């Protein structure tokens, strides 16, 4: 199945404490149905010192469910995503609100 949200997409959070904020997806976990969005769903974690990393309290992003984020189009508004088959047989993502092709 083709992914509606992909790495590099700009998304808006629909629910939760970060509702209304936007960020860029930097990792998608399709098996868990979750994504990591830069600067969204931040938590503090205690980290032990290793040879490569410093110890202390660090802030990191936690996964957010794909149902709680929406793709943000060129107009800056969140939209749902559908799929369309082009004449040459290529499958592209389409913004439901405007009908514009996202990657094509």
Automatic annotation (TrEMBL):
Q: Name one Pfam family in it.
A: KOW
GO BP terms: translation
Query: Under the cellular component aspect of Gene Ontology, which terms does the record hold?
Result: ribonucleoprotein complex; ribosome
What does the record give as the function of this protein?
A: One of two assembly initiator proteins, it binds directly to the 5'-end of the 23S rRNA, where it nucleates assembly of the 50S subunit.
What InterPro entries has UniProt attached to this entry? KOW, Rib_uL2_dom2, Ribosomal_uL24, Ribosomal_uL24_C, Ribosomal_uL24_CS, Ribosomal_uL24_KOW, Translation_prot_SH3-like_sf
User: Does Ribosomal protein appear among the keywords?
Assistant: yes
- Classify the source by domain of life: Bacteria
Q: Where is the KOW domain?
A: 4-31
Query: Can you name this protein?
Result: Large ribosomal subunit protein uL24
* Keywords assigned: Ribonucleoprotein, Ribosomal protein, RNA-binding, rRNA-binding
Q: Which organism is it from?
A: Bradyrhizobium elkanii
The family classification in the record reads: Belongs to the universal ribosomal protein uL24 family.
Record GO terms (molecular function): rRNA binding; structural constituent of ribosome
Tell me how this protein assembles.
Part of the 50S ribosomal subunit.
């Amino acid at each position: 199945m083709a992914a509606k949200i992909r790495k590099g997409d700009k998304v808006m959070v629909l629910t939760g404490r970060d509702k209304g904020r936007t960020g860029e997806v930097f990792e998608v976990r399709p098996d868990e149905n979750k994504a990591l969005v830069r600067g969204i769903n931040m938590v503090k974690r205690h980290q032990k010192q290793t040879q490569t990393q410093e110890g202390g309290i660090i802030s990191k992003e936690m996964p957010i469910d794909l149902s709680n984020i929406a793709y943000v189009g060129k107009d800056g508004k969140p939209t749902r995503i559908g799929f369309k088959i082009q004449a040459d047989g290529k499958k592209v993502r389409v913004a439901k609100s405007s009908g514009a092709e996202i990657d094509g």
